[in-house]
Write a structure and sequence with these properties.
The chain has 650 residues and is an alpha+beta fold. The chain has three domains: 257 residues, FAD/NAD(P)-binding domain (3-Layer(bba) Sandwich), CATH 3.50.50.60; 109 residues; 100 residues, no CATH class. 28% of the residues lie in helices and 24% in strands. The strands form nine sheets. A seven-stranded mixed sheet has the order 8-7-28-29-30-27-31, sandwiched between helices. Strands 13-22-21-16-15-14 form a six-stranded antiparallel sheet. The longest helix has 22 residues. It is globular and about 70 Å long. The N terminus is likely disordered.
Length: 650
């Protein structure tokens, strides 16, 4: 038998080329399939063995911080049989989703830190909602608008069932601004942008882009329309300004919300405030499983020995009565905005005033509803929101405040810009010691820096410094207004805004949350909130500046309200959100730590899969619980995410 002779017109295909062709074919098939069938969430690090779900012997955990991360950790661990003690420094549970009562005329409302949207790809948060059977606490907002002050038509986002690239195809078809995106893939810089945003991969994308800010990256040749329409407003919604946000972190953010997300951008809001709708059901579950929750608990010492935490001490009482020092940074912007014999420390709604070379600081947090009072030329302090007046020593002169401003002794800090403050109250609360098998620190960045100062004994100083290097983002601000009339609004009841000096979004609470809907039906009025995600303190150094600008911009956004009667206004501004600056990814703390029984949770933790905002906080808490369960030989909870890598990263 003779062998067939080779065809002179045939081409020899190498194994490598064949694999490439197979990869391209597979990619093409996957893209086609993703148009016909909705992609399913990806599973992260699932246990392959069928392990026990619950402890067979008693174990205890102390969780510090009752924001979403700490609540998620405590929720999961208490379900598994751990004896959980949850400590929260504030009197209010929930962290950045906490709420508190305010008085508006004769009525009481719940105030929050701003509107929170529940996106459909918040898979891990949704799994807790389903377990608690509280899905009815949320209502769909149906669609989501992005409204521009000038230059572009409004964009509208709706639910989707397609992954990349079909979700972008759908966006292209629906966008009234599609001809203004400015994309030209014949330009090398535009092609590099396209590759970066469609080829996200951890840690590769951070290796390539974590060393540069979003602003500097865009300056190298980013399509202008694409940046103006999508990247600028959504970068700011990460609560980090483009001039200080890592381009690598922005790629993660966009992959989670856009390019890896098959669910679309329409989302749900809560029917009531976040505490009623989500926080309290989680709290009740923790308590039903034997957990103990202690508020106004300030950690005074964390004792480490032999590579483990041996105990933790705390005192109960808020800052004015606690004898635990805390660190604040000098604020020269406030000093320049208030000329005179003034030294200011802190930012947002935690500001302190002192005289030069003084040994005592006065808290400027109004004892009525927590606004920041402003120093007047006559030496008095006045609340810009509700009119309370204090004398130069912090004593109440005029209500509605009833308690004097708190006083603190000033102690030297870690550097020339920092000092430590400690209460001047004579009646110091007792110290309580807790011992547990495991510890989870889940405070915000400001809290974590103070907790790092409390670590004593056998602990690696480089590890402590890693925590203290965490960055804080620019402050955010929320202004809520009550008016005596309603108005026409053609956009979504929560809408992002772009092009204003301060305002980044608007929420019509009288069309979303039950308490405000009922009030509006009785009175014919409206309740509107404006949110600034990451404003510059240099431009708006005082709360008076913030309120004046918010009100001016509100009348630009909704002109008909200029003739309405303003019945009430509330302002919240804080500087405590996690910052994601360039070159921070590599040194960012992870869930596990060098201390064997210590774990971290919070939206500042380095995450192994794409996630953002509330989902990032919840997922980090569940990761800490999984790490502890894993050490005890228990089945880890299944965690879900969007497509973990960009489809074009190959």
């Amino acid at each position: 038998m003779t062998e067939p002779s080779p065809n002179p017109n045939s081409t020899v295909v190498s194994r490598r080329t064949a694999l490439k062709l197979l990869g391209v074919g597979t990619l093409g098939g996957a893209i086609g399939y993703s148009r016909l069938a909705k992609p399913q969430p990806a599973r992260y690090d699932t246990d392959r063995l069928d392990l026990p779900q619950y402890l067979s012997q008693p174990k205890s955990v102390v969780v510090v911080g009752a924001g979403l991360a700490g609540l998620a950790s405590a929720y999961e661990l208490s379900k598994r049989g751990f004896k959980v003690t949850l400590l929260e420094k504030s009197p209010n549970l929930g962290g950045k989703v906490a709420g508190w009562p305010i008085q508006v005329g004769e009525e009481t409302f719940q105030m929050e830190h701003g509107f929170h949207g529940f996106f459909p790809q918040y898979y891990n948060l949704k799994s807790i909602v389903n377990e608690l059977a509280i899905a009815d606490n949320f209502r769909s907002l149906d669609f989501y608008s992005l409204v521009f002050k000038e230059g572009y038509e409004p964009e509208v986002f709706r639910p989707s069932h397609s992954a990349f690239p079909w979700n972008i195809v759908d966006l292209t078809i629906s966008s009234p601004n599609r001809l203004r995106w400015g994309i030209n893939l014949t330009k090398p810089s535009h092609w590099q942008v396209f590759r970066a945003i469609t080829g996200f991969q951890i840690p590769k994308s951070y290796d390539q882009l974590d060393s540069i800010t979003v602003s500097d990256w865009v300056a190298k040749g980013f399509p202008k329309g694409l940046y103006d329409l999508y990247f600028l407003p959504f970068a700011k919604s990460s609560l980090n300004a483009p001039d200080v946000l890592s381009a690598g972190e922005l790629m993660q953010f966009f992959h989670f919300y856009f390019f890896g997300n098959p669910e679309g951008l329409a989302f749900n809001g809560t029917k009531d405030d976040m505490v009623t709708s989500l926080v309290m059901p989680m709290v009740q579950s923790i308590q039903a499983n034997g957990g103990e929750i202690i508020t106004e608990a300030t950690v005074s010492a964390i004792n480490c020995d032999q590579g483990k935490i041996q105990s933790l001490q705390y005192v109960q009482g808020d800052d004015p009565v606690s004898d635990v020092p805390f660190t604040v940074t000098r604020n020269d912007l406030l000093a320049r905005a208030n000329p005179g014999d003034n030294v200011y420390y802190g930012a947002g709604d935690r500001v302190y005033w002192a005289k030069p070379e003084g040994k005592e600081a006065l808290s400027l947090t109004c004892s009525h509803q927590g606004c920041t009072v402003a120093k007047q030329e006559n030496g008095q302090f006045v609340c810009p929101c509700h009119g309370a007046v204090y004398d130069s020593d912090g004593k109440v002169v005029q209500g509605p405040a009833k308690r004097n401003l708190a006083k603190f002794a000033i102690q030297p800090g870690g550097n020339g810009e920092e000092v430590q403050l400690v209460s001047r109250t004579q009646n110091k609360p007792p110290t309580t010691t807790l011992k547990a098998d495991y510890y989870v620190l889940a405070a915000d960045v400001v809290g974590m820096k103070n907790l790092a100062d409390r670590l004593d004994g056998d602990v690696n100083p480089q590890f402590v410094q890693q925590v203290k290097n965490l960055a804080v983002a620019d402050p955010f601000a929320v202004a809520r207004f009550w008016f005596d009339q309603d108005f026409d609004w053609p956009h979504s009841n929560f809408a992002s805004l772009s092009g204003y000096r301060l305002t980044d979004s608007i929420t019509l609470y009288h069309r979303i949350q039950n308490q405000f809907i009922a009030w509006a039906e009785r009175t014919g009025g409206s309740v509107v909130e404006l949110h600034a995600y990451c404003y510059k303190e240099k431009e708006f150094p005082t709360q008076g500046d913030l309120l004046a600008t918010f009100e001016q911009e509100l009348y630009e956004i909704v002109p008909s309200l200029a003739t309405a009667n303003l019945l009430h206004r509330e302002l919240v501004n804080q500087k405590n959100f996690s910052g994601f600056p360039p070159n921070s990814y590599g040194d960012r703390p992870e869930t596990a730590t060098p201390v064997a029984n210590l774990f971290f949770a919070g939206d500042w933790v380095k995450m192994p899969f794409p996630c953002g905002l509330m989902e990032r906080a919840i997922s980090s808490g569940l990761l800490s619980a999984n790490a502890i369960c894993h050490q005890e030989g228990l089945q880890r909870r299944e965690l879900l995410t969007v497509m973990p890598e960009g489809i074009l990263q190959i």
